[in-house]
Design goal:
Elements: H1 2-12, E1 16-20, E2 23-28, H2 32-45, E3 51-56, H3 69-72, E4 77-82, E5 89-92, H4 95-103, E6 113-116, E7 129-132, E8 156-159, H5 182-199, E9 202-206, E10 209-214, E11 220-223, H6 231-245, H7 251-265, H8 272-347, H9 356-399, H10 405-448, H11 451-464
Parallel strand pairs: 5-6, 6-7, 8-9
Antiparallel strand pairs: 1-2, 2-4, 3-4, 9-10, 10-11
Helix pairs in contact: 1-2, 4-5, 5-6, 6-8, 7-8, 8-9, 8-10, 9-10
Length: 465
C-alpha cells in the first residue's frame, strides 16, 4: 500500500494535498489518471487498516472502486485517506505530515518511530527515529524512558504556550548531519528549534512572539526567531546539547554557565536563532573552561575533605584502641590484686593464723571488687563508644554527604568496624578472665573458712551411711 499512496500522490500533481496525524486529504479536480491511482489505493487499503472516501462539492460520496472514473474526472472532489496507525508509531505520507508528527513527539511518550512514505535513509536519534514506511510493517516497541534530564527543568516557561522539549534525545542526531534530502532538512529545522529552546533560561510569549531569557551579566531578553541552519551551525547546536544533557552530571551548573556565556557574548537585540551560529562556539568553549575550573576546584576541596576524613578516622580508631587498652590494663590490675591477696595468704604460716574467717572475708571482698570493677569498666567503655558512634553518624551526613554509603563504608566504615571487632573480642576475653578470677577467689574463700572441708566430710558420711 505505501507504494500505491506514493504513486497516487505523484499522479495528483498540482492538487491541494493536506495531512494531519492519521488523515491525508487531496482536494481539486483530478484527472482520470489520478483517480485511477487512488482507486488502486482504495482497493488495497482495507487490508492495511485504512479507509478511503471520495466526495464531490455537494457532499455526495463516490466509491472509487466501482465508480465510472471518466464521469468523475475533472469534477471538484475531495479524497480522504484515513491512515491506520500501528502501536507506538506514527505513519505519515508527506512532509506536512512529518512536520505535524514531529510537533506531537513530546505529547506521545510511547511513540518510538515516525514512519514516512518515500524516505530512503532513516533519521536515527537518541529518542524517536524517523524510518521509511514500508508494506507489512508491524507495531513498534514503546519508547524507553529518557536517560537524560528534561530541558524543561532548566529552560522554564513563564508565560504562554511556548516551551522547551520534554526530552532531548529525539533531537540529538546519531549519524551524519551532512544530508540534503527534504525529510532530513525538515527534521533538522525542527531539531534546531528544539535545541535552541533548550539553551534558554526562560521562555515566554508576548503578542504572539516567542521570546527567551539568557540569564547572565547582563541578562538578555531576545526574540527566539527562526533559523536557516547550515551543517556547521547545526553541528554546533548538537555539540552544545550533548555537552549540556548527555556528557556528564551537573546539568544545572552547565546550563547556567552556558546561558551566562551566551548573555555575555550578546551585544545587540539580534534574535537568538540568527545570532547563535556566530556566538555559540565561543560561548560553549568558555562555558567548558569555566566548568573544568569548577571541577578542579571541587576536586581540591574533595581531596582536602578526604584528607580530613582520614585524619578523623585515625582519631576514631585511636579512641577505640584506647578503650581496648584501658579494658585490658584494668583487667590485669584486678588480676594482680587477686594474685597478691592469695600470695599473701599462702605465705603466712597457717598454724599461727587465728583469724581464718577474716581472710575469707578479704578474699570475698577482692572478688566483689574485681566483678564491680569489670562491670564499671565495660559499661563506661560502651557508653563512650556509643557517644563516639552517634557523633560519627552526624559528621558523616553533614560533612561527607557527597559520599555514597558504599564509598563511605570502604573509606571509614570498614576500618572502624574492624577496630570495634577487636574491642569486642578483648571485652569478651576480659569478662571471662575476670569471672574466672572472681570465682576462684570465692572458692578459695570457702576453703579458707572450712566450708569446703565440712561439705566434703558431710558428703563422705552420706555416701558411707
Amino acid at each position: 500500500m505505501p507504494l500505491d499512496v506514493s504513486a497516487a500522490l505523484d499522479a495528483s500533481g498540482a492538487l491541494d494535498v493536506g495531512e494531519s496525524i492519521g488523515s491525508l486529504t487531496v482536494a481539486g479536480t483530478p484527472d482520470e489518471a489520478a483517480l485511477s491511482a487512488w482507486r488502486a489505493v482504495a482497493l488495497d487499503c482495507a487490508d492495511q487498516g485504512c479507509r478511503l472516501t471520495c466526495r464531490d462539492d455537494l457532499g455526495d460520496a463516490h466509491d472509487l472502486t466501482t465508480a465510472d472514473l471518466s464521469e468523475l474526472a475533472g469534477e471538484p472532489l475531495r479524497i480522504t485517506l484515513e491512515i491506520g496507525q500501528p502501536a507506538n508509531a506514527i505513519r505519515v505520507a508527506t512532509s506536512q505530515g512529518l512536520r505535524r508528527a514531529l510537533a506531537v513527539v513530546d505529547a506521545s511518550p510511547n511513540v518510538s518511530e515516525i514512519r514516512l512514505l518515500g524516505l530512503n535513509e532513516p533519521i536515527v536519534t537518541l529518542g524517536v527515529n524517523t524510518v521509511p514506511w514500508r508494506s507489512g510493517d508491524v507495531d513498534a516497541a514503546p519508547r524507553p524512558a529518557s536517560a537524560y534530564p528534561s530541558p524543561r527543568r532548566f529552560a522554564r516557561t513563564i508565560a504562554g504556550d511556548s516551551r522547551a522539549p520534554a526530552e532531548i534525545g529525539s533531537w540529538l542526531l546519531d549519524g551524519d548531519p551532512d544530508r540534503r534530502d527534504e525529510p532530513f532538512l525538515l527534521w533538522r529545522g525542527a531539531a534546531a528549534d528544539a535545541v535552541r529552546r533548550s539553551l534558554a533560561s526562560e521562555i515566554y510569549d508576548v503578542d504572539g512572539t516567542t521570546r527567551v531569557v539568557l540569564a547572565g551579566s547582563p541578562t538578555r531578553r531576545l526574540n527566539l526567531g527562526d533559523g536557516d541552519e547550515t551543517v556547521e551551525s547545526f553541528t554546533a547546536l548538537q555539540e552544545a546539547a550533548r555537552w549540556l544533557f548527555v556528557e556528564g552530571r551537573d546539568v544545572e551548573l552547565r546550563h547556567t554557565l552556558l546561558a551566562g556565556e551566551l548573555a555575555r557574548e550578546w551585544r545587540d537585540e539580534q534574535p537568538l536563532a540568527a545570532g547563535l551560529p556566530g556566538r555559540l562556539p565561543v560561548a560553549l568553549e568558555s562555558a567548558g573552561l569555566a566548568y573544568r575550573a569548577h571541577v578542579q576546584h571541587g576536586s581540591r576541596e574533595t581531596i582536602k575533605s578526604l584528607s580530613d576524613l582520614r585524619k578523623t578516622l585515625a582519631e576514631e580508631i585511636g579512641k577505640v584502641t584506647q578503650q581496648t587498652r584501658d579494658l585490658s590494663s584494668g583487667l590485669w590490675r584486678d588480676v594482680a590484686v587477686a594474685i597478691v591477696t592469695i600470695a599473701f595468704r599462702l605465705s603466712m604460716d597457717a598454724t599461727k593464723s587465728t583469724a581464718t574467717p577474716v581472710y575469707s572475708i578479704v578474699l570475698l571482698l577482692v572478688a566483689a571488687y574485681i566483678v564491680v570493677s569489670q562491670v564499671v569498666t565495660v559499661k563506661s567503655s560502651r557508653a563512650f563508644l556509643k557517644v563516639a558512634a552517634d557523633a560519627r553518624a552526624q559528621w558523616r551526613h553533614k560533612g561527607y554527604a557527597y559520599l555514597s554509603d558504599s564509598e563511605f563504608d570502604a573509606l571509614a566504615g570498614t576500618p572502624l568496624k574492624e577496630a570495634r571487632k577487636v574491642y569486642d573480642g578483648v571485652e569478651r576475653a576480659a569478662n571471662w578472665v575476670a569471672g574466672l578470677v572472681a570465682a576462684g577467689l570465692v572458692v578459695f574463700a570457702a576453703w579458707e573458712a572450712g566450708v569446703l572441708t565440712a561439705a566434703w566430710r558431710a558428703l563422705s558420711a552420706f555416701a558411707c551411711g
